[in-house]
Amino acid sequence: MTRQDYIFTSESVSEGHPDKVCDRISDSILDAFLAEEPEARVACETFATTNRVVIGGEVGLSDQKKLAQYMERVPDIVRAAIKDIGYEQEKFHHATVEITNLLHEQSAHIAQGVNASESKDEGAGDQGIMFGYATNETPDLMPAPIQYAHAILRRLAEVRKSGQEPTLGPDAKSQLSVNYHNGKPVGVSSIVLSTQHLDESQTSDDIRKIVEPYILEVLPQGWVTPETVWHVNPTGKFVIGGPDGDAGLTGRKIIVDTYGGAAPHGGGAFSGKDPTKVDRSAAYAARYLAKNVVAAGLAERCTLQLSYAIGVARPLSIYVDTHGTGNADPAAIERAIDKVMNLTPRGIRTHLGLNRPIYARTSAYGHFGRKPEADGGFSWERTDLAEALAAAV
After folding, report:
1. Cα(330)–Cα(326) distance, integer angstroms
2. Considering 8, 11, 15, 20, which one is annotated as catalytic?
3. 77: Cβ–Cβ under 8 A, 6 or more apart, which residues?
4. Residues facing residue 351 across a β-bridge
5. How far apart are alpha carbons 300 and 321 in whole angstroms?
6. Are 140 and 369 in contact (CB under 8 A)?
7. Does residue 20 carry a catalytic annotation?
8. Among 53, 161, 189, 377, which lies 20 to 30 A Cα-Cα from 230?
């Protein structure tokens, strides 16, 4: 039997964390190419350290002349992303950082497995397994620890960027330990927050006085009690932040990006990858389907796995686990999923409208548990398939 009373912890990192700076740059480059051509192929990796950003990977446009022109835009895209995050440090500044662009044309051998032809459908961009998860413990059907760890940092970023809290810096990490009783989240046993600050005279106590009201604002009422343990900037000063303090890489925060460890992860990162890469698009589809299973009342919790082979269009398997909370046979849910959604790479992109420049906004504070947006951003968070799923079971 699943444990009902326990403490579970998840962490989040801010948009100014070195790895998230790299995710943002990679997704900003992806957006720029998709804005030019919805079928653009992009696999963009970023490395950042003191005063330097290095871009690598492969890109493809139908017009190779345009490809050379867009390569010239990359440094401007990088600088704009760093500026929006808020880095103007002496050793990591959007205006002075050295940028090396090593992007190159997509491999023809990869393209031949992915591209559609007269004899076959478009295949998956790689082999792999992807997981989706949903739980009814929060309004957005996300695990509470990761959802609220994100909310803390998102709120601190808002007040930093608005000028309301000018001494906060871009780099930050949060960690939330949530008490569960009878399987439901009921409170917070500990809060860990480390945030960069710009005033060297500020102490840990000073920072706690700044951040505590915002943390209390985003957590459910009554979750923080006198017994909650706080660790705010526990090492003391945190003035040197971002890639100057620690090197960053694209795709190194995959658990932060998904479910905070409350559910499996297939292993593939998201940022910098166009939606022909099932590492990204099928993980979004899996979240979409799991969320709709829960929204349809078919289960209180749902884990869903998809698997693919490079160059093969249809998924090799669909697996559903409702963790003993289901109101339908998991095998029946699997069959219903196969009926109500085309899970080929092309089918996923069409159903969720993924061939759009909507990815830079996903690069921090989680790819899941967000509100669907009018321009198609976070389309995988819709619950518009719930009725069809319920009818098909």
Report:
1. 8
2. 20
3. 25, 28, 29, 32
4. none
5. 11
6. yes
7. yes
8. 161
The verdict on whether 45 is a catalytic residue reads yes
CA dist 173 and 196 (Å) reads 9
Rounded Cα gap, residues 275 and 130, in angstroms: 14
Catalytic residue among 19, 122, 137, 321: 19
205 is catalytic: no
247 is catalytic: yes
Q: Which amino acid is at 337?
A: I
Structure tokens at 341: 């959604």
Is residue 246 flagged as an active site residue?
A: yes
pLDDT digits 0-9 by tens, 352-370? 999 999 999 999 999 999 9
19 classed as catalytic: yes
| Spatial separation of the C-alpha atoms in residues 114 and 117, rounded to whole Å | 9
Based on the number of CB atoms within 10 Å of its own CB, is 310 exposed (0-12), middle (13-18) or buried (19 or more)? middle
Q: Bridge partners of 178?
A: 8, 188
**Which helix or strand (DSSP H or E) is residue 295 part of?**
helix 278-295
Q: How many helices (H) and strands (E) does the chain have?
A: 11, 13
Nearest Cα to 43, choosing from 110, 134, 132? 110
The model carries a pTM of: 0.95
**36, 37, 84, 246: which is the annotated catalytic residue?**
246
**What pLDDT, in 10s, does the model give residues 39-57?**
999 999 999 999 999 999 9
Q: Catalytic residue among 11, 15, 31, 45, which?
A: 45
Query: Do residues 320 and 337 touch, judged by C-beta distance below 8 A?
Result: yes
Active site residue 238: yes
58 is catalytic: yes
Query: Which pair of structure tokens corresponds to residue 88?
Result: 């103007």
Q: Which of 8, 11, 15, 17 is catalytic?
A: 17
Buried b (16+ CB within 10 A) or exposed e, 11-21: bbbbbbbbbbb
Residues 65 and 269: their CA atoms lie apart, in Å, by 30
Sequence-separated (6 or more) residues with CB below 8 Å from residue 291? 132, 134, 141, 380, 381, 383
Task: Write down the catalytic residue from 79, 273, 287, 291.
Answer: 273
Q: What is the pLDDT of residue 109?
A: 45
Whether 20 shows a pLDDT value over 50: the answer reads yes
Question: 37 catalytic, yes or no?
Answer: no
